[in-house]
Amino acid sequence: MEEKAEMPKKHKGAKKTYRRSNPSIYFLLWATFSAFSLFIVLLFGFTQSAMMRNSYKSQIASDLAENGKAIRRSLLEYNGPFYSAYVRYQAQLYNVGVYILDPDGTVIFPVEEDGSEDFAGQFDFSEKVERLIDKMQSAENGEILYEDPSGEYVYGAEMRAYDEGEEGRTVYLYVFKPLQLVRDVVAEMNVRTLLLAIFVLVLSFAVSSAISGALTKPIAEMTEKAKQLARGDFSVDFHGKAYGGEMEQLAATLNFARDEISRSDRMQKELIANVSHDFKTPLTMIKAYASMIQEISGDNPEKRAKHTQVIIDEADRLTSLVNDVLDLSKMRAGIEVLQLSVFDLSAYTQQVLDKFGYLSEKDGYTFAADIEKGLFTRADPVKIGEVLYNLIGNAVNYTGEDKKVTVSLRRDADGNIRFSVTDTGKGIRPEEISTIWDRYYRSAEAHKRPVKGTGLGLSIVKTILERHNFRFGVESIVGKGSTFYVVFPSADPSEADE
Fold it and tell me: I need a surface site. Which of 11, 55, 164, 365 has the fewest CB within 10 A?
């Protein structure tokens, strides 16, 4: 009976989370432009309204001060009959209101002088006179100008009135100008500002919509092309219509990313093909020689030993390939932590170089060593050993017919330690310089490889040195050979571990 797969249990109290969607650039541009336009119009309108109100009030105050002084002089100089009529005349002449009040707020002038109904009795100036008298206490030259809470500008001054048979008494000249005109003008301005704001808001909606669409169109186009790229279409070109320098730079960057992704995809396919081939070769050999032992050499000790050695060698080769792939994956993922220590790089380089000594006896290779003694550095010794072995092995694989490899370790002028390994091969073409550090890169030149390699050596070297932040590179002349180098920081020998 087939068992049912157990479904994962849902944690009690687990909450379902939703990702909030951010507003689009189109909406943000449209809303920002519209809001800014509306803000500018309202700010301008209300600023103009406030400036106009203050300007009108300042003008009214200035005119009222001059008119009040002129009226005061005229009334003091007038000695003719019909004084009330003269007060009205002054009011009409300067287009202001003019009253002469006693301290209790009673209107003294103008009054009706023809015996008809008392015109002044219809107005109550008691509160206004109280405010006037209160402000007159701080007045200079017996006159004052102020804005009354009743909504008018007031010019006030003390005067002396002389009745027949009586001594002179204090009265007050009250000249005023209503501010209703100012309020009407400001109200009209506010209405016009509101109408203008509505018009600008509608217009800004249309204009910002068009501008936002024009600005976001290249982004939308690039988004669609990026989706095509994600689906594996590396023929897309992010360059479109000229939308500005920034978009051109973005398009150029995306095209560069496209090329790099395309190259990485191609390298990955080549990696899979090459690794599969390298896996297949030793497996085929192992299977073939195992069958030979089973069918032919099982009872022959000499042949059986020879065939089993081939199986062991191919198994070692397969193990080396697997280890290289795992090491590279760990280092690229940052899983493997560097174990830094101070060690003798001179002695360590010599030890690594000695591992290639069998090639001198077996295949006639020549190793020229120029290793300065007593050079210490701080690094991970195991990983640096892989770097040195891979670089020397690479030089052995690609050196020329003279089979010569030069290894140098010297202190440079800056106090650092420079390691270099030089071969006499055909060199590296300039267009290949930037790709030799890629995973599973192999030169197009066919070479017999005396040092077994997986094609991952230089990529492992690059990853290790980048994690150490060490400077490295290659100098090559086509037809003469290549020099790979690494610059190590110098360290104090007293800090070396035992």
Answer: 164
State the pLDDT at residue 117. 44
d(CA 189, CA 186): 5
- pTM, rounded to two decimals: 0.47
Measured in degrees and rounded to the nearest 5, phi and psi for residue 154 equal -125, 135
Looking at the DSSP assignment, which residues form a beta bridge with residue 203? none
Q: Give the type of residue at 34.
A: S
CA distance 67 to 180: 19
pLDDT at 77 over 60: yes
Give the C-alpha separation, 212 to 130, whole Å. Answer: 63
**Sequential DSSP letters for 191-202:** HHHHHHHHHHHH
* 147/177 Cα distance (integer angstroms): 10
Region for 388 from its dihedrals, namely left if φ exceeds 0, alpha if ψ lies in -120 to 50, beta otherwise = alpha
CA dist., res. 313 & res. 34, Å (int): 76
- For residue 422, the SS3 value is strand
Residue range 347-373, pLDDT digits in tens: 999 999 998 888 888 888 999 999 999
Quote the tokens at residue 234.
Answer: 């590396």
Which tokens is 196 given?
């203008």
Instruction: Say how far residue 493 (Cα) sits from the centre of its chain.
Output: 45
- Residue type (1 letter), 328: L
SS3 category, 428: coil
- Cβ within 8 Å of residue 281, ≥6 positions away: 314
Tell me whether strands 366-371 and 404-411 are parallel, antiparallel or unpaired.
Answer: parallel
Could you tell me whether strands 366-371 and 376-379 are parallel, antiparallel, or unpaired per DSSP bridges?
unpaired
The CB density around residue 395, as the number of other CB atoms within 10 Å, is 26
**DSSP alpha helix (H) spans, 231-300:** 245-292
CA nearest neighbour of 386 among 315, 328, 308: 328
Exposure letters 399-426 (e unless 16+ CB within 10 A, then b): beeebbbbbbbeeeeeeebbbbbbbbbb
How many CB atoms sit inside 10 A of residue 255's CB?
15
Q: To the nearest 10°, the Cα dihedral for 370, 405, 436, 355? A: -80
